[in-house]
Amino acid sequence: MRSAKDFFAPLAVGAPTPLREVPVRPSRMIHFFDPSNPKMAAKVPALVGEVDVLLGNLEDAVKAENKEAARQGLVDIARATDLGEHTQLWTRVNALDSPWALDDLTTLVTEIGDRLDVVMVPKVQGPEDIHYVDRLLAQLEARAGLTRPVLVHAILETARGMANVEAIAGASPRMQGISLGPADLAADRRMKTTRVGGGHPGYLVRRDPVDGDVGGDRPTYQQDLWHYTIARMVDACAMHGILPYYGPFGDIADVVACEDQFRNAFLLGCVGAWTLHPRQIDVARSVFSPSAEDVAHAWRVKEAMGDGTGAVMLDGRMEDDASLKQCLVVLELAERLAATDPALAELYGAGERA
Ligand code: GLV
Ligand code: MG
Fold first, then answer.
1. Could you identify the atom of ligand 1 that is nearest to the CA of residue 184?
2. Is 322 exposed, middle or buried (0-12, 13-18, 19+ CB in 10 A)?
3. Among 89, 103, 149, 172, which one is least packed by beta carbons within 10 Å?
4. To 10 degrees, the CA torsion angle through 110, 112, 113, 114?
5. 1 Cβ contact partners less than 8 Å away, ≥ 6 residues apart
6. How many CB atoms lie under 10 A from the CB of residue 151?
């Protein structure tokens, strides 16, 4: 058993001290690119400042023969690109049981560890995977002389990972967050879908028959396949002070359903989602930034609640300590986003005055 006192001690001599809090930088969209694809790589500089997170993907969607080119491409891009103040650089390394993971971590941390904010680890099965990465990163950080720890993000995409999600979230002070990986999770669970994220028309409830007429008019309502998974992931993350994310939505043309999935995740507590195509970037930005109306309402409740105790009536609705706490969550997020996004600062400022 490890003593609680040791939890924040570096895991290698010379490694930076682990952080006590996850840095709260905006991460509404984690934009994936393939560093082995010269066309995608050429677009990276134009995305700086446009997206909260740029993620160089080394795992699935990169062909086996391009794995090394992707790794080297990411090193080159990280060195050549000025990421400005507001865009973070993340990577998704290959799975820990693959032939590439060790070289991915070794190369990236020793070559560009000072530029890399977060390493996303796919197909995490349990806390033991995080412990392995934790120690290895500490050794590599020490070798590279890094002064700030590289954080770790787990993808929730195996049934075992799902069963262990709370232990994964709390496995290390390096844990920054967890993303839903709906495609791999569906396969690992032996679900019968064939999509990357989103709902399914066959997963539904139907209205009861009227007067026993089972063939009569009985509207159906599509249900959300991911509700349980996201809700449990959000609880695991909140419990450990780390951040939950929706993952990929594969139907690039269907920006409407993409927005619905992202919004469900936002309302349940997620802070962002992956974007696989530029057209999903604005969807994520708008969904994961609170609306001007919600911010204005939150301000009204805050003002009406005075010292924060008791209850008041606003527009026929009861507001009390607990609704104020929800409003403070919205206001804190709005304030944080407005600090780096002038358009939002103006939008929320107008809402505040309304
Ligand atoms: C993402 O990696 C997924 O499997 O959905
Ligand atoms: Mg996956």
1. 4
2. exposed
3. 103
4. 130
5. none
6. 24
Ligand 1 mutation target, pool 185, 226, 246, most atoms within 8 A of CB: 185
Q: Is 51 exposed, middle or buried (0-12, 13-18, 19+ CB in 10 A)?
A: buried
Inter-axis angle of helices 101-112 and 67-80, nearest 10: 10
Q: Looking at ligand 1, which atom is closest to the CA of residue 274?
A: 1
Q: Are 173 and 20 in contact (CB under 8 A)?
A: yes
- Domain 4-287 CATH assignment equals 3.20.20.60: yes
Percent of the chain as helix, strand, coil, to the nearest 5: 45, 15, 40
354 residues of the chain, pLDDT tens digit each: 889 999 999 999 999 999 999 998 999 999 999 999 999 999 999 999 999 999 999 999 999 999 999 999 999 999 999 999 999 999 999 999 999 999 999 999 999 999 999 999 999 999 999 999 999 999 999 999 999 999 999 999 999 999 999 999 999 999 999 999 999 999 999 999 999 999 999 999 999 999 999 999 999 999 999 999 999 999 999 999 999 999 999 999 999 999 999 999 999 999 999 999 999 999 999 999 999 999 999 999 999 999 999 999 999 999 999 999 999 999 999 999 999 999 999 999 865 544
Q: Find the residues whose C-beta lies inside 6 A of ligand 1.
A: 60, 155, 157, 181-184, 196, 247-248
Test site for ligand 1: of 120, 162, 184, most ligand atoms within 8 A of the Cβ:
184
pTM of the predicted model as reported, rounded to 2 decimal places: 0.96
Closest to 330 in 3D by CA, of 343, 344, 310? 344
Mutate to test the pocket of ligand 1, among 155, 193, 261 (most ligand atoms within 8 A of CB): 155
What residues have CB less than 8 Å from 145, skipping those under 6 apart?
A: 14
Q: How far is the CA of 187 from the centre of ligand 2 (A)?
A: 10
In the reported structure, the alpha carbon of residue 123 is separated from the centroid of ligand 1 by a whole-number distance in angstroms of 9
Kindly state the tokens that stand for 238: 């909140």
Name the strand (E) or helix (H) holding 348. Answer: helix 342-353
